[in-house]
Amino acid sequence: MTEWRENIITFARKHRDSVYINGPDRNRVALTFDDGPDNVNTPVIIDSLKKYGVKGSFFFVGEMAKIYPGVVRHAFDNGNLVLNHSYKHDNLTQKTNHQIQADLNQTDKIIEDIIGKKPALMRSPYGDTDEKVVAAATETGHKIVLWSIDTLDWSQRESDNIVHNVIDNIRNGDIILMHSTSRTNETAKAVPIMIEELQKRNYDIVDLETLLNVQAYQ
Ligand SMILES: [Zn+2]
């Protein structure tokens, strides 16, 4: 287990109602997609989710959402959650409380202008979180949702590897981290196969609102 993982488990335990790394021990898991939207792979992923009747959770970056509002709306209109992944993917632990709040508010505003709803869930870039980030997230109405399986899809992995990494490690309540950017076409390829393999193993694929029993929007 990586040092980040060990630390975050302890940290999440300490902040039980404001920081989540997985859901309860039942046969439900969530697919989450960070860093988008883009106008190629994000739409392909949205269409795959739709084809299988599965809802995903997208943590979009504010400045990307501003560039591709149509893709944000498309994700939302198809029943997926549209959530906050900061304005331009800065490491929030390097900012002051005031700067973190400004960053999250700015991103909420961009999303709200597009879908009419303000996210109540955020994921800190790189999963970097500390007391200050939790305080600022809470003050701006957000719970922090991290993950329990990293597909490492950003590191030029092939779709087979992405799928296997998930299927070989899946447990009840897992939150699966993937990315939906212009570089993650292997993720877009992996999603339908992953959904089929998870469903074969009787996992219900749900959004984070359902997995964690929390509100996605403020
Ligand atoms: Zn990210």
What does the model show?
By secondary structure, the chain is of the alpha/beta class. It has a single domain (3-212), classed as TIM Barrel (Alpha-Beta Barrel). It has helices at residues 3-14, 41-51, 62-67, 69-77, 97-115, 131-139, 159-167, 185-200, 208-212; strands at residues 19-20, 28-34, 57-60, 81-84, 121-122, 143-145, 149-150, 175-179, 204-205. The strands form two sheets. Strands 2, 3, 4, 7, 8 and 9 form a six-stranded parallel beta sheet that branches. The radius of gyration is 16 Å and the shape is globular. The chain starts with a helix and ends in a 6-residue tail after the last helix. The model has no long low-confidence stretch (mean pLDDT 97). Zinc ion binds at residues 34-35, 85, 89, 125.
Helix proportion range: 40-55%
Distance between the termini: 34 Å
Number of helices: 9
The count of DSSP E runs of length 2 or more, i.e. the number of strands, is 9
Q: How does CATH name the architecture? A: Alpha-Beta Barrel
Give the arrangement of secondary structure elements.
Layout: H1 3-14, E1 19-20, E2 28-34, H2 41-51, E3 57-60, H3 62-67, H4 69-77, E4 81-84, H5 97-115, E5 121-122, H6 131-139, E6 143-145, E7 149-150, H7 159-167, E8 175-179, H8 185-200, E9 204-205, H9 208-212
Parallel strand pairs: 1-6, 2-3, 2-8, 2-9, 3-4, 5-6, 7-8
Helix pairs in contact: 2-8, 5-6, 7-8
Bound molecules: zinc ion.
Features:
218 residues, alpha/beta, TIM Barrel, globular, binds zinc ion, NODB_dom, metal-binding, Polysaccharide deacetylase family protein, hydrolase
